[in-house]
Amino acid sequence: MKKSFRLKGLDCANCAAKIEERVRKVDGIEDASVSFMTQKMVIETNSDDENLLKNIKKAVKKEEPDVKVEEI
């Protein structure tokens, strides 16, 4: 299943690449794509773990502390 997120405060393409790489390492994530231009992230997962969003937010915060993640 695909889920989309808005990344508020994402301010460079390099940051987007780092976030994408970090989120791909989160358990339950099969793929992740981050677009700096649209400030959106799309993940592919087969997990219904209720902690998945929390783990994604943690991964983003580790890479870019000022970026806020909102599910859309």
Describe the protein.
The protein has one domain: Alpha-Beta Plaits. The protein has a 4-stranded antiparallel sheet. Strand 2 and strand 3 form a beta hairpin. It has 72 residues and is an alpha+beta fold. The mean pLDDT is 94. It contains 2 helices and 4 strands, in the order E-H-E-E-H-E. Helix 1 packs across helix 2.
Q: What count of structural domains? A: 1
What is the succession of H and E elements? EHEEHE
* % residues in beta strands: 25-35%
Query: What is the number of helices?
Result: 2
The gross shape turns out to be globular
Query: What class, by secondary structure content?
Result: alpha+beta
Distance between the ends: 14 Å
Largest sheet: 4 strands, antiparallel
The mean pLDDT is 94
Low-confidence stretches: none
Say what the CATH topology is: Alpha-Beta Plaits
Biggest sheet, spatial arrangement of strands: 2-3-1-4
What is the CATH architecture term?
2-Layer Sandwich
Q: How many strand segments?
A: 4
CATH class: Alpha Beta
Any descriptors?
2 helices; 4-stranded antiparallel beta sheet; alpha+beta; 72 residues; 33% strand; 4 strands; 33% helix; globular; Alpha-Beta Plaits; single chain
Short overview:
The chain has 72 residues and is of the alpha+beta class. The protein is 33% helix and 33% strand. The radius of gyration is 11 Å and the shape is globular.
